[in-house]
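Reply to dn_fold:

You asked what the input looked like. This is it:
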Amino acid sequence: MAEGSSFSGRARVVSMTRILAFSGGPLDAESWPARNLHTDTAKATEAGLAAPIASGVQCEGDVIRLMLDLFGDAWFRHGRMQVKYPRPVLAGMTIQAHARVTAHRPGENGTLVELEVRCEADDGTLVAVGTASCIE
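and this is what came back:
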């Protein structure tokens, strides 16, 4: 992976069904889904949001999937990532993970690859941004 190389993951639609499965609590709970800003319009409005939003970790999962595509099992042993979520993801949005190699250098235990990572909505809005690294 040369410095400056760019990679993209698969685009996917974030469905309300997936949001509920992720943030609704245990599926066998009597009061499923749990009422929170991810699953309930009233709770989201209470929090100042226009609608329920996906958990940021759901977007992070798309970035991790891309890292696994790039590094395979090495990601589990040597992968590191730090991200923040500048904009919410609403049900129905399409998101896609992207990465760009910022450094590629030999180290004691292998080659260290550093990347800028991001997850974008289909309109170009950044919904997750950060950095990742892995030893190949």
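The two ends are 10 Å apart (CA to CA).
Hope that clears it up.
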